[in-house]
Amino acid sequence: MESSNYKLKIGELIGQTRAWRQMTQAELAKKIGTSQSAVNRIENGNQNLSIEMIEKISEALHVELLAFNKKGTVHFKINGGRELTGAIEIRSSKNAAVGLLCGCLINKGHTTLKNVPHIEEVNRIVEVLESIGVKLRWINGGADLEITPPMKLKLDEMDVVAAKRTRSVLMMMGSIMNSYPKFKMPYAGGCNLGKRTVEPHLAGLREFGLAIETKNDFYQATVTDSQIAEKTIVMTERGDTVTENILFAAASKDAITHIHNASPNYMVQDVCFYLQKLGVRIDGVGTTRLTVYGKANINQDVEYEISEDPIEAMSFIAAGVVTDSEIEIRRAPIEFLEIELETLRAMGLKFDQSPVYLSRNGQTKLVDIKLYKSKLAAPIDKIHPMPFPGLNIDNLPFFAIIAAKAQGRTLIHDWVYENRAIYLTELSKLNVRNQLLDPHRIYIEGVSEFRPAEIVTPPALRPAVVIMLGMLAAKGESILRNVYSINRGYEDFARRLNSLGADIELLY
């Protein structure tokens, strides 16, 4: 397709969608941080458009402008074998963002979340919130999101399609249950990682009077008013989203709640910091024992800056390691990367670390990490995740591709998800030697000479990124098909890797 014809077709689509949204050119310009005249040029096909600008317009108009082919899919063509150079700054946390978006429903006032990641997971939650009457406005060039709840949520009008595409919607239960005695919630989706029960969520929320009846494709919730002034909830599973759900229920209840075996992970801490801004006292933040002094009728106008993403930081660390590159990862949340870095140090990775400084939220500790070329050796013991402060569950898959660069045999034990290790066998298509022992354990044989391949992206976020990183290290042209699962959790990942010297093209 000729460039001018392409720009005209894009412009026409943008203009039609804007009109359908009953939005003026000036209003769209404000949302995307440009001028009305620039929007006019875009709609008339007279303006070159970057992928980043198309993504901004997509967010503003709530439409996937990049999904042009019949299946609505996007692919990556990766010309691998290039050494990366330079520095990259870590952006805000995807998992913290979706939790905070769900938690904002307990606040009757305005919430402004700063530096919200523009990813598919966030898009789905935004669509759900808008469908139930929440007013959302992107400000400051689309970096921040202003959230204003209605007097009464229109829960019966929830966008079921969007809700079913993200498991995070479950956290809305804890946020709304103290205000709505009856509601229904669609079954949750997200990554395909085997059977993931919602029972820990329901068990915790039952303590606040929630009863669930399972229907064909949704949960019917009934809430009875619990008058207990002080209670202790012992979580049998130290889950991140489960802890957040209980926190939301406890924060909006005029009672004292002790939560034992709580997750102290990064996204839970973000939620705690936000709730504290709402005037909710929480003792024990960063530990497994939380005490929440809840308050009914929360109505505060607040701003909260989302902390940096440790999983994104680990993604770029892995990218540097597998491409044998010297790069700098800035604004890395060190408290949630310490075990990963020590594991890599034991394997032979050479790196420097800056003095600690604070995130813009005033709480999260950050460092800059400089990677150097290194010869790696397989660890003596298996690599396995643990709840924080152990090696992060979401960071474990990155060690599979790193192990392919290490001399010797590495055992990866993913005891949490029964399917994720199976997805890692796809690395064999890149010439990574591996042996699957069972749904949880896989041996990786190093040192592999990566080879290019064409692979359909697994329906699980982290294994998908691991394959992408393997393609970066493979000399030649690789195709990664249908990258939706990557776009669920990463903002502009391909372009940011390109800024370090990678060669990744988008195909439609």
Commentary on this structure:
The chain has 508 residues and is α+β, with helices and mostly antiparallel strands. Helix content is 33%, strand content 24%. It contains 18 helices and 24 strands. Strand 20 (433-438) and strand 21 (441-446) form a beta hairpin. The longest helix has 18 residues, at 3-20. It is globular, with a radius of gyration of 23 Å. It starts with a helix and ends with a strand.
What is the compact description of this entry?
The chain is of the alpha+beta class. It folds into three domains: 3-61, 434 Repressor (Amino-terminal Domain), CATH 1.10.260; 75-91 and 308-507, Enolpyruvate transferase domain (UDP-n-acetylglucosamine1-carboxyvinyl-transferase, Chain, Alpha-beta prism), CATH 3.65.10.10; 94-305, Enolpyruvate transferase domain (UDP-n-acetylglucosamine1-carboxyvinyl-transferase, Chain, Alpha-beta prism), CATH 3.65.10.
Key features?
globular; alpha+beta; 508 residues; 434 Repressor (Amino-terminal Domain); 18 helices
> Judging by the overall fold, what is the CATH architecture of the largest domain?
Alpha-beta prism
Question: Which class of the largest domain in CATH terms?
Answer: Alpha Beta
Mean pLDDT: 89
Low-confidence stretches: 67-71, 189-196
Instruction: Specify the structural class.
Output: alpha+beta
Number of domains: 3
> What's the CATH topology label of the largest domain?
UDP-n-acetylglucosamine1-carboxyvinyl-transferase, Chain
- Percent in helix: 25-40%
Question: Radius of gyration from the CA trace?
Answer: 23 Å
The CA-CA distance between the termini, in Å, is 12 Å
The biggest sheet amounts to: 5 strands, mixed
